[in-house]
């Protein structure tokens, strides 16, 4: 890769992250506006189904935007596996540039939604004890990271199938944790909504919605590489022996 291409990548990726993060938060708020205010479905099973379908559609749209922008993402948990597995310089770039830009995109979108449609925002709401909430968000984040990595591993060239598996599983995990922590599994989005009232620096928020998902992601990457990487190496060895 030429130096010009590298510079373009380093410059454009954070812009893509900001754009996709902004759109993701706006889509989530607009789906709640559509379900609760326009369609008037309330908060019953029908509303959960409608929001689930809209969420899957939003994830497909953001995944497509990420594809055409060369890797734009709205969730730090989606960036960390690649950053951990790559070179140290790429890890530093991800942590120092891409993740903060995702947070800024979510904050900008939350501010716009709050000013345009008051009381439609949906920030994190912890309904259990703090440590139980951290365990819940950690388990949910661990699950979606492992599922996403496995989906990428087995369907790397199939955009539709990879996105379908990840999005449906994420909606299912969100529903499992919705009554406890909200099932966020996205530190950037959680910070975006809590930034408006200053709660993003509280111990509860940092532990449950930031630290626990990140630790779960690190554990998921380690376990995935522990069990999958030997299999890849064995296949390479077998192929060389066959040749």
Automatic annotation (TrEMBL):
Main location class: membrane
Record localization: Membrane
Bilayer-spanning residue ranges: 6-31, 52-70, 90-113, 134-154, 206-228
GO molecular function: channel activity
Cellular component per GO, a single term: membrane
Topology in membrane: Multi-pass membrane protein
Keywords assigned: Membrane, Transmembrane, Transmembrane helix
InterPro entries listed in its UniProt record: Aquaporin-like, MIP, SIP2-1-like
Source organism superkingdom: Eukaryota
Gene3D superfamilies named in the record: Glycerol uptake facilitator protein
Annotated signal sequence range: none
Name the record gives this protein: Uncharacterized protein
Highest classification ranks of the organism: Eukaryota, Viridiplantae, Streptophyta, Embryophyta, Tracheophyta
């Amino acid at each position: 890769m030429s130096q010009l291409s590298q510079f373009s990548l380093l410059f454009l990726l954070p812009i893509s992250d900001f754009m996709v993060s902004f759109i993701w938060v706006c889509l989530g708020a607009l789906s709640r506006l559509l379900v609760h205010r326009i369609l008037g479905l309330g908060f019953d099973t029908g509303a959960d189904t409608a929001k689930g379908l809209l969420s899957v559609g939003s994830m497909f749209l953001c995944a497509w935007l990420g594809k055409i922008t060369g890797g734009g993402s709205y969730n730090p948990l989606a960036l960390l596996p690649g950053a951990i597995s790559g070179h140290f310089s790429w890890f530093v770039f991800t942590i120092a540039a891409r993740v903060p830009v995702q947070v800024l995109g979510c904050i900008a979108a939350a501010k716009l939604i709050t000013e345009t449609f008051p009381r439609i925002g949906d920030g994190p709401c912890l309904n259990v004890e703090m440590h139980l909430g951290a365990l819940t968000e950690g388990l949910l984040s661990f699950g979606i990271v492992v599922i996403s990595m496995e989906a990428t591993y087995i369907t790397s060239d199939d955009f539709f199938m990879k996105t379908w598996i990840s999005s449906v599983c994420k909606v299912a995990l969100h529903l499992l944790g919705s009554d406890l922590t909200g099932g966020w599994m996205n530190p950037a989005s959680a910070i975006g909504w809590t930034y408006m009232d200053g709660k993003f620096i509280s111990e509860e928020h940092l532990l449950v919605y930031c630290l626990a998902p990140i630790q779960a992601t690190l554990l998921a990457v380690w376990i995935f590489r522990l069990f999958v990487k030997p299999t890849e190496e064995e296949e390479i060895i077998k192929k060389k022996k066959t040749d």
